[in-house]
Design brief:
This protein is mainly α. It contains eight helices and no strands. It is 73% helix and 0% strand.
């Protein structure tokens, strides 16, 4: 399930984003799929994905418990998993909702999302050194960490600047996906790396 959750998340927002009437994957955020009569699909996706990443965090902590970086990475990964899980039931408000008109669950979703996007590019860098014994995993982690870090810097800059937000609004969803997709791909890489590490240890 540690690898299944992130895969499900990407598949759901790709499929739902393509078939949902009035929804634009280029413009709209992934969380907007939680709105409307089919919102339960994305809500369930958040819960499944968050649970999978929490499991991945536990496996990471067990594998690297003797190293401070490993323990730190596991904790940060667990925070991301918990925030994603809670992002399901705490549904965002519709795009364009003024701050004074926001609901408590919409504000909560925004805080949870802020934590997730702050930590996503950090965790791969923290755990990079722990993966050096598996060259393929180390290489993929480095590549994906660079991509998601660059994309996240752009995404945060855009969301914090009204002028940038207005000029990039038609591509806001795409920019967000450029952070989410590499992170979910990296979670799959990490899950397989941990599995291979465990099998190798069992053989020894």
């Amino acid at each position: 399930m540690a690898a299944i959750g992130p895969i499900v998340f990407v598949l759901v927002f790709l499929v739902e984003g393509a078939i949902r009437p009035g929804y634009s994957p280029l413009r709209d955020y992934v969380s907007a799929l939680s709105l409307g009569s089919r919102g339960w699909v994305q809500i369930a996706s958040f819960i499944v994905t968050g649970s999978g990443i929490l499991l991945l965090a536990l496996l990471t902590g067990r594998a690297f418990r003797s190293r401070a970086a490993g323990r730190t990475g596991a904790i940060l990964l667990g925070v991301i998993g918990l925030c994603l899980l809670l992002s399901g039931p705490f549904v965002m408000d519709a795009a364009g909702t003024p701050l004074d008109g926001s609901t408590w669950h919409g504000l909560t979703h925004g805080v949870l999302g802020g934590i997730v996007f702050l930590l996503m590019p950090v965790v791969p860098w923290v755990l990079l050194g722990r993966l050096r014994t598996q060259r393929w995993a180390w290489t993929l982690t480095l590549i994906l960490a660079i991509v998601m870090t660059a994309a996240d810097v752009v995404f945060i800059a855009v969301t914090k600047s009204p002028d940038l937000l207005a000029s990039t609004e038609p591509f806001a969803g795409l920019i967000q996906r450029c952070v989410l997709t590499p992170f979910m791909a990296w979670c799959v890489v990490l899950a397989f790396a941990l599995s291979r590490r465990e099998r190798a240890a069992a053989v020894e």
